[in-house]
Amino acid sequence: MESICIFIVEDEPSIAQTVQFTLEAEGFSAEHFSTGTSCLAALESARPSLILLDVGLADGSGFEFFRRIRQLTEAPVIYMTARDAEIDRVVGLEMGADDYIVKPFSLRELVARVRAVLRRVGTSAARLTGTAEVFQLDAVRMQIHYHAQLLELTLHEYRLLETLLSHPERVFTRGQLLERGWDDPNHRLERTIDSHIKSLRNKLREINPDADPIRTHRGVGYSLIAGS
Fold first, then answer.
1. What is 125-224's CATH topology?
2. Exposed / middle / buried, residue 189 (Cβ in 10 Å: 0-12, 13-18, 19+)
3. For 52-89, what is each residue's pLDDT tens digit?
4. Is residue 173 over pLDDT 70?
5. Which of 131 and 21 is assigned the larger pLDDT?
6. By the 8 A CB rule, do 22 and 115 touch?
7. pTM of whole model > 0.70?
8. How far is CA 94 from CA 87, 201, 218, in A?
């Protein structure tokens, strides 16, 4: 399997080295850049799977570098910064970043956030056998097309369908879908999954009344039928 490459844009050597070592120990390929400028130069020819971007770089603001990065790649970006003011988090996320982690952070938390973003963004249904002509997932814009028509989804519906698309034919329990679809899941609310699946099915049927790509596994959960 091709190694997932992560760019680390961080001007503090000790932090960069620790993060790089941790990611490589987790099986990722990692490349360190001490300036935003050097990262931009590398992006002219390289295509990383994800970018960890420090906001307070020596050669400029990470927010500004984010804009320039977006001109070269749609790779997901997680901000790493000592700034913990709410306005900084809001600005970073509204600009289109995928996540935001405040220093000092737990390395386990960083790896978990990296994996979560890669799971959301890196499993585009357009690349999955049997689904490419049925579903198209645009993870950057958080949009899903079904038979070339844009689905008007709520956030929870999007996350549920994105999860099912990530592993066609795999059965996800209600608890697993709740964990992936809700920021603060409460397992007493697992049955709310059923109502959201029902709504999602209705929207799919509006486009293709003859198909029902979501399969119910009674007493367990749901799966997606590849190619339906």
1. Arc Repressor Mutant, subunit A (1.10.10)
2. exposed
3. 999 889 999 888 999 899 888 888 999 988 766 666 66
4. yes
5. 21
6. no
7. no
8. 10, 30, 40
Q: And the tokens for 129? A: 């056998």
Burial of 77 (0-12, 13-18, 19+ CB in 10 A): buried
Structural class in CATH, domain 5-121:
alpha beta
- Domain map (residue ranges) of the chain: 5-121, 125-224
Tokens of 147: 């038979």
Beta strands 99-102 and 135-138 are: unpaired
CB-based contact 68:60 (threshold 8 Å) = no
Tokens of 91: 């600005």
The strand pair at 60-61 and 77-81 is best described as unpaired
